[in-house]
């Protein structure tokens, strides 16, 4: 497997475009469209929030129906959540506009939204945007990059990646883009991710691979503990690579899953590091836990704690806060088994050893904590399961962004 | 029932004192001692954190043993959590110093700590503090107030209250003090609460009343979602009011429980409003939920959401964030049943009605949100259970306090 250029347009047969639709932002693009020139098998994962946005309900219908997917239309102004029947009608109007402009079935058109909850979308602007975009479809790398910029809200960098690998003698490409800083995201800006690949694979196996990989990547990041109403990941596979179609969990399937894991982990970490107001990527690695579930629970609790996040912002090796978060996570363990380290490019330092604090060199700790990526490394000494979670620090800017958002 | 002066020394037979022990702070008191001149039946509730501070383990032993309690010694410098055997030895040394100075059994001496996790307590300073305090025991209101100040860490105001009521023709007094801003508290400063009463009551009933009331008061506040390693509430009852001892859940028991509810709710709300960096008390009232548990889950999710808290700080009636938090709380409901209002002294405004946003007057909303106490009022229209939770807004000062804490 090798990392290649571009993102959502990297795989054969995929095109993208974007435009200034004026839904919320002025003087910037705020709509994007991803198109496959042939119908795709598709897989999706969606927010677990009981309050689901209209577009999440729309997309879930398509994924569950077993029908092909061919287009995704995204806007980055209004979330279309808590909008009742009018919100659902806006999804349908968008899909019908795509059917009219591009001649694809309206029920193969997914829609995704991100932005303020509880406001209605301006349907006329959406439809005008679709018409405009239908004339500028482009398979270039640049068009994919432009789409990844159009879906940003409070993101400070666009997020895209692509990889290529070989299956049954054919080159297969998987690319993707995402926005937001978490499955758990500030401002209801929402985590959105769109993956496109030219692999030939059965729908059931595509969904299985996507669900499994998402649970180890996107579901392991957090910015502020707020699970959005709009979280959506869609993966479209159009089969254009010409590989023997994957029907079993054979070696080809594992090759594809490795590529998927790379792409999802890359985008997930990039989102965590770009969490609102973040100055650092904050990583927690838990090893030798009793079970995979425990390892996940513990690592997520560490990166999710406001106090841990504030300590990371302050470059303070205040390890008690990290142990405390592990303690209330819900996982059972004995603190007398635990070893806790801080780690970064600048070094690795043990601060707590099997129940007892270690007197450590504060200057060395500060050097480690000052790096752009800081890892809390925990050895539970209770089993052989491990997990990694990603988050970011809690800064003044997080408060600023979120106290001001709607205005 | 009427509210009277003072706190922990208001009930007959209780004395308090405090001193500058120099454990962490300079030029301020940082140890307190509460003493009953006769042994007390006692009840306690403690942190659910798996990582329990040494003092929590010490106190739990006393409460569980069924033996009487007569003294509580508190320090506000170091949490004595994650300190291994040395930490437990510090508890014993403190209790033995009290035995020596005041002639009470060392296993009737509770100890409580709050402050930094993962540092060892200076036992010599603790013992010197106990010796000093044993000479200044005082039953005055002022001594109780001084004790409530000595246990503060990042608190900006001391917290105490007392009430009196009649049982079997006798006046009974219940007083208390607390520190911190939550069961769920910044800086591991920890929530501590100490209640003293002269009521005569059986231990089992005292514990039952305390546990029930705590779950509706202290357990319904949150500042940052971080459950401390040290949370402790202790209630001592010395029987000096001379009432007929309460042995059943009769009318007297209910009278006492009402007084207990008042005292605990008063102290809990005061902690939430004094959450680190807080500028407002933020309250969520959920009515007509399917079950009490759902009502609690929903109201706690609203006041616990970083995004809701930041919106409250920004005086932004961004109701989607509150609905979103309800949606990921774990409670099941249909958004088409929900009515959501913002409420304060300045008025009450419906913003979401059974699945659809209401276009509201932003100026009116701003007027409501600007008050010192802001309530989100939610009618679930699904049953008849209700609950209230309390928290505070998320401000720049919260980040400042917690990025700087240890230094």
Q: Helix/strand-derived class of chain A?
A: alpha+beta
According to CATH, what is the topology of the largest domain in chain A? L-amino peptidase D-ALA esterase/amidase
Largest interface: A-B, 67 and 66 residues
Average of the residue pLDDT scores of chain A: 90
Question: What's the domain count of chain A?
Answer: 2
The residue ranges of chain A in which pLDDT falls below 50 over 5 or more consecutive positions are: 182-189
Largest sheet of chain A: 9 strands, mixed
Strand content of chain A: 25-35%
CATH homologous superfamily of the largest domain in chain A, by name?
Answer: L-amino peptidase D-ALA esterase/amidase
Strand count of chain A:
15
Which of globular, elongated, flat, extended, rod-shaped describes the shape of chain A? globular
How many DSSP H or I helices of chain A? 11
* Overall helicity of chain A: 25-40%
Highest-level CATH class of the largest domain in chain A: Alpha Beta
SSE sequence of chain A, one letter per element: EEEHEHEHHEEEHEHEHHHEEEHEEH
CATH architecture of the largest domain in chain A: 4-Layer Sandwich
Q: Alpha-carbon distance between the termini of chain A?
A: 46 Å
Assembly state here? Answer: homodimer
Q: Give me the Rg of chain A, rounded.
A: 22 Å
């Amino acid at each position: 497997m090798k990392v290649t250029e571009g993102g959502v347009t990297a795989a054969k047969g995929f095109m993208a475009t974007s435009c200034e639709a004026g839904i919320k932002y002025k003087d910037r693009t705020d709509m994007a469209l991803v198109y496959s020139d042939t119908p795709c098998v598709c897989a999706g994962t969606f927010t677990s929030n009981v309050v689901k946005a209209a577009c999440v309900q729309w997309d879930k219908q398509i994924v569950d129906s077993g029908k092909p997917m061919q287009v995704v239309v995204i806007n980055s102004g209004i979330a279309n959540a808590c909008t009742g029947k009018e919100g659902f009608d806006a999804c349908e109007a968008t899909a019908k506009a795509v059917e009219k402009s591009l001649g694809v079935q309206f029920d193969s058109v997914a829609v995704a939204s991100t932005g303020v909850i509880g406001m209605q979308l301006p349907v006329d602007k959406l439809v005008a945007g679709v018409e405009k975009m239908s004339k500028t479809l482009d398979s270039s790398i640049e068009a994919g990059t432009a789409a990844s910029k159009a879906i940003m809200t409070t993101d400070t960098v666009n997020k895209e990646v692509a990889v290529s690998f070989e299956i049954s003698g054919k080159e297969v490409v998987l690319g993707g883009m995402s926005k937001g800083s978490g499955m758990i995201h500030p401002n209801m800006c929402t985590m959105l991710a769109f993956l496109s690949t030219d692999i030939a694979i059965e729908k059931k196996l595509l969904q299985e691979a996507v669900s499994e990989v998402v649970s180890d990547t996107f579901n392991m990041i957090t910015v502020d503990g707020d699970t959005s109403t709009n979280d959506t990941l869609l993966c479209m596979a159009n089969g254009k690579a010409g590989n023997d179609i994957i029907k079993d969990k054979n070696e080809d399937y594992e090759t594809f899953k490795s590529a998927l894991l790379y792409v999802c982990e890359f985008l997930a970490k990039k989102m965590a590091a770009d969490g609102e107001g973040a100055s650092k990527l904050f990583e927690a690695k838990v090893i030798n836990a009793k079970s995979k579930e425990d390892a996940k629970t513990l690592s997520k609790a560490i990166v999710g704690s406001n106090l841990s996040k504030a300590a990371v912002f302050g470059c303070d090796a205040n390890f008690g806060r990290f142990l405390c978060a592990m303690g209330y996570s819900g996982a059972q363990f004995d603190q007398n088994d635990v070893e806790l380290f801080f780690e970064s490019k600048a070094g690795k330092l043990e601060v707590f050893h099997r129940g007892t604090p270690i007197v450590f060199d504060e200057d060395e700790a500060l050097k480690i904590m000052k790096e752009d990526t800081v890892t809390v490394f925990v050895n539970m000494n209770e089993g052989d399961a491990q997990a990694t979670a990603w988050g970011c620090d809690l800064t003044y800017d997080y408060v600023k962004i979120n106290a001001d958002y709607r205005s």
